[in-house]
Design goal:
With 356 residues, this protein is α/β, with parallel strands linked by helices. It contains twelve helices and 13 strands. The protein has an eight-stranded parallel beta barrel with strand order 3-4-6-9-10-11-12-13, surrounded by six helices. It has a two-stranded antiparallel sheet with strand order 1-2. The N terminus is likely disordered.
Length: 356
């Protein structure tokens, strides 16, 4: 215990922590730099938010998360990854999501939603799945229907309509899902976009149109985040420099870049270790000049803090650790020697459990 106490004291005295700084996301203030990463829960058989979602997200808000991003939420039925995904293609989904948003805000969190389309990786079976090119993800998926130009425009408008509903539901911001081999990612990648028309000649065009139409449907100062795969783990995939070149033409259309990796290829080979995606975030931050959210095994509070101190990222996204421990933020503060206020009666538990 003495050694542990000494470490905490050293951190407290010699390093001004950044992880728990208040920070601005455009005109919004987040109470810390910790983001709950969007993680599919597969708990919406009717595609509407339920009491499960209310409890799941509110618990993390009570636990001190500054910014919560709800899981991938489909803009149309065939855009779901599974039949149990959340949807936002109809007004009926607004009120259930609004309940989740309101409850999380009651405990001081900013709340956003990730709007998404699964593309060729959809497991929906009652209608054809779609993609920029007719290339199956693997032998277990059907060959997708190649979207024609008019269908692409229809999909762009569906993203915008979902964004409009998100605003009505009270979300503080939107994250557009352009990562993990889903539809936008498929347009961006040379592995999956073999088109010869304008959408193939400029692989960022579809994303550009999505962001433009989304911006038209949200208030002027409304934050729009963008999630991308900083590494595709494929010999013919985008390099970080190529991805940055695609993103540079879009810089005026989004505010923060959320950098993940993978998903375009079913035979990816990479090692998962603490901070394994940090290099992607750091390089895209430099190449694009945009603030970035880093993600990927950053659950060690000291590593998260070090990442911010070394200017490798502006925000830290935590995923599985928050599934394991809804109070990860509070325990991380204890480990770094930061005295955070706990909510209500939970203050009684302060200091009783230490994060490893």
């Amino acid at each position: 215990m003495a050694n542990r106490s000494t470490v905490l004291q050293t951190v407290s005295l010699n390093i001004r922590t950044m992880l728990f700084d208040k920070t601005k996301i455009k005109n919004l203030e987040a109470k810390n730099r910790i983001v709950m990463a969007p993680m599919c829960q597969y708990m919406a058989p009717e595609s509407a938010a339920s009491n499960y979602h209310l409890v799941h997200y509110a618990a993390r808000a009570i636990g001190g998360v500054g910014t919560i991003v709800l899981e991938a939420t489909a803009i149309e039925p065939r855009g779901r990854i599974s039949v149990n995904d959340l949807g936002l293609w109809d007004d009926q989904f607004i009120e259930p999501l609004s309940r989740v948003v309101t409850e999380c805000k009651n405990y001081g969190s900013l709340v956003g939603i990730q709007i998404a389309h699964a593309g060729r990786k959809s497991k929906i079976t009652n209608e054809p799945i779609v993609a920029p090119s007719s290339i199956a993800f693997n032998k277990d998926f059907p060959v997708p229907h190649e979207l024609c130009s008019s269908e692409i425009i229809e999909t762009v408008y569906k993203f915008a309509e979902a964004a409009e509903r998100a605003v009505k539901a009270g979300f503080d911001f939107i994250e557009v899902h352009g990562a993990h081999g889903y539809l936008i990612s498929e347009f961006l990648s040379p592995v999956t976009n073999k088109r010869t028309d304008e959408y193939g000649q400029n692989r960022a065009l579809f994303l550009k149109q999505v962001l433009e139409k989304v911006k038209e449907k949200v208030p002027k100062d409304y934050p729009v985040l963008l999630r991308v795969s900083g590494e595709e783990y494929h010999p013919e995939g985008n390099t970080r420099k190529q991805l940055a070149e695609l993103l540079l033409q879009l810089g005026h259309l989004y505010d923060i870049l959320h950098v993940s990796s993978g998903g375009i290829y079913d035979k990816e080979k990479y090692e998962v270790y603490p901070g394994y995606q940090l290099a992607f975030a750091e390089e895209l931050k430099k190449l694009t000049g945009k603030p970035v959210i880093a993600v990927g095994r950053l659950e060690n509070p000291e590593l998260a803090e070090k990442t911010l101190q070394e200017n490798k990222a502006d925000y830290i996204a935590v995923g599985k650790a928050l599934l394991s421990d809804p109070n990860w933020v509070l325990h991380a503060a204890e480990k770094l020697g930061v005295d955070l206020e706990w909510f209500g009666v939970y203050e009684r538990a302060k200091g009783t459990i230490k994060i490893c």
